[in-house]
Amino acid sequence: MDCRIVLADDHSIFREGLKSLLAQKPEWKVVGEARNGVELLALVGAVECDLVVLDIAMPEMDGLQALRELRLRHPQIKVLVVSMLDDYPHFAHAKTCGASGYLSKSDAGDELLRAIERVMTGRPYVSPSVSSLLAERQLNLLESEGTPSLEILTKRERQVLGWIARGMTNKKIAAELGLSIHTVENHRAHLMEKLGMKNTVALIRFAIGKGLT
What we know:
This protein is of the alpha/beta class. 55% of the residues lie in helices and 14% in strands.
C-alpha cells in the first residue's frame, strides 16, 4: 500500500525519529515536513499526500486548529495525531475535529507503523496508553452512575449531610441548624436509608464525592 506522508511537528529530532521508523516501509514516502500549522496548510496545498502525522502542541497555529482547517480544505487526507498530550480532553477534541487516529508519543516507537496501517485502511486507531485512559474513564463514569443522586434528598437532608461530612456531631449540627438532637438523629437515619449507606464513614465518603465539604 503506497502512502505519501507529511510530518508536522516543531521538534526536528522527533521528525527524524519518525522518518527512521517509516523507512521500514519502502512503499511509504515522506513528501514534506512542517514545524507548525501554518506551514502544514501551505505544504499540503502544494504537494500530494495521503496522510498527515500531526502533533498538537506547535507554535503559530497548533495541531487542532490545523486539523480543523485540513478537514475543511482536504477532507480526503487522513490525519494521525501523535502527541505527548494523552489526556481525555485533548483526545476528545482531536476526534471532534476529525482525527483518524490518536497516538501517544510514548507509544510511537512500537505503534507508529500499526497506527498508520489501520488509519490508511479506514479503521480508527487509538494508542494503548490512551485506550487505557479511556477504559478507566468509562469505568469511573459507570461507577458514578451507580451512586445515588443528591436530588433524592430534601434541602434539610443535604444540609445535615454537609455538616456530617465536616465531622460535626449530632449535638453541634442541631445547634447550627436550630434543630433538636432527636431531629438530627432522624435525618441521619433517613440519609443512610435513602443512600444505602451502612455507616457514617460511607456517608462522609459520599458527601465528599459530591462536593459537599
